[in-house]
Amino acid sequence: MFYDDDADLSLLEGKTVAIIGYGSQGHAHALNLKDSGVDVVVGLRVQSASVGRAREHGLEVIDPADAASRGDVVMMLVPDELHGQVWESGVKDGIAPGNLLLFGHGFSIHYEQVVPPPDVDVALVAPKGPGHLVRRQFLEGSGVPGLVAVDQDPTGNALAHALANAKGIGCTRGGVIETTFKDETETDLFGEQAVLCGGVTELVRAGYETLVGAGYDPRLAYFECLHELKLIVDLMYEKGIAGMRYSISNTAEYGDLTRGRRVIGAESRAAMGQILAEIQSGDFAREWIAENRAGQESFKRMREEQAGHQVEVIGRELRSQMDWIQTEFEE
Length: 331
Known about the structure:
The two termini are 40 Å apart. This protein is α/β, with parallel strands linked by helices. Helix 1 links the parallel strand 1 and strand 2. The chain has an eight-stranded mixed sheet with strand order 3-2-1-4-5-6-7-8, with helices on both faces. It contains 17 helices and eight strands.
């Protein structure tokens, strides 16, 4: 683990960090680095909806190719599916020998959507949390833990400069683990698909549908299967699974210990193994790349269909009465 004392922010003095993209992670990296005293420029296409927001935040915004030319460090933080296009459309021409090319996720390097020249340092700085949390915890004086990896190191300084960037965004406050692009990519995809996103959302919907199908009030089903999930996850986040079990009732803990494996049993574990195999073989990456080349038709259809699920409708109705958790998405 690397912490603040293991990283030297002064390595970025006199250098410019170009942040390509200004979404969830992009805005957090750019603003945290700026607040850490680093010279930052943001690379966005002139028609990007994020241009105005970045300028309102006091950042200089220029074309991605020009930003790459300005940057001694170039951080690619556009969505994974756009990396190849943005790279080929000019960013690669702005990368000079000896520059550091950074990524927030290893997908495009591991699956060769971006192939950097051999005379460029290539590294990864990946906060283990969404951008809004990276920004919020930085402002609070803490930091989201992260991962660091080096794929190319012709200068011999890739790790030190990557750690400087990790310190600039606050990750070394929480601790940074060294890994590889392969391991970061494959574990991240698996976590998203099998547990954090795919697994959790299907579990919530299945529980909700079971209760509503049995005749229970949809509002009770929503609170029981979705709303209260945050309370349990927060306990696990703070204390681990054992700590969460210590904090809940004995009745709840006994039900957890005796029933949980009936829900997530052998069939679910076998499915997880298959999902991991598809990630490791590159099958998932090829599927997602093909989906994007086809215009994301299936992806957009599935997104629209699931946004209309009854748990979403009931949830919007109930959350509209909870001003303290109103989100920008629903506004």
